[in-house]
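Thread: "does anyone have the structure for this chain?"

Original post by V.I.:
We have the sequence but no experimental structure in hand. Need at least a predicted one for the grant figures.
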Amino acid sequence: MRILIAEDDPKLLKSLMHIFELNHYSVDGVDNGNDAFDFASSDEYDGLVLDIMMPGMDGVTLLGKLRANGITTPALFLTARTEIDQRIEGLDAGADDYLPKPFSMGELLARVRAMLRRKENFTPDMLNFGALSLNRSTYELVCGGKSHALSGKEFQVMEMLMQNRGAIVTAEQLITHIWGWNTNVDTSVIYVHVSNIRKKIEALSAPVAIKFVKGAGYTLEATV
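Reply from O.Q.:
Generated one for you, tokens below.
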């Protein structure tokens, strides 16, 4: 799952990103409403965590513009306890939930999980490609009664390939999805992760291969 966090307090933003990453989310963080709008407009996120009071554009205005542009990504507002009117405006603008500050990280994570479960297109715990399955709860590849654990980054690569079955996924798309836009990671890192995943697929004797299409990217294909 990929989350965008918009929070203008740098210490809180850093803490939020760290907690979500520890809980196996892919996270991008911004500190103002204008950047949040630009990032969220890509429609590449599963959920948004937005502070209401931000420089550039407040959270309510931001979400209203996103909804007007057809972006339906679930959103949760972080609000000061005194911002009652803004909470109402936020819900009216299309927010799914709000959480007053100060809050516990446990409650925030629980509310985000609940928000994501309410998505119409919420993805199941298992993704399947032929006889090979990816367990999204345990980060394991499963085939023929056997399983093999993936690292966090390997899981994200495999998840994206399985979600885009039949299509070619470029190395750049994988980098953006996993590390975000502002990263210095190069395509050789993707090659290393793909190489490791291939070894684990082979260890399971799964009839699936990750094929590299020269000049294009990676795709899954059945081998039998």
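V.I.: this helps a lot. The chain is about 40% helix and 25% strand.
O.Q.: and Helices lie at 10-22, 33-40, 59-68, 84-93, 105-117, 152-163, 171-179, 187-203.
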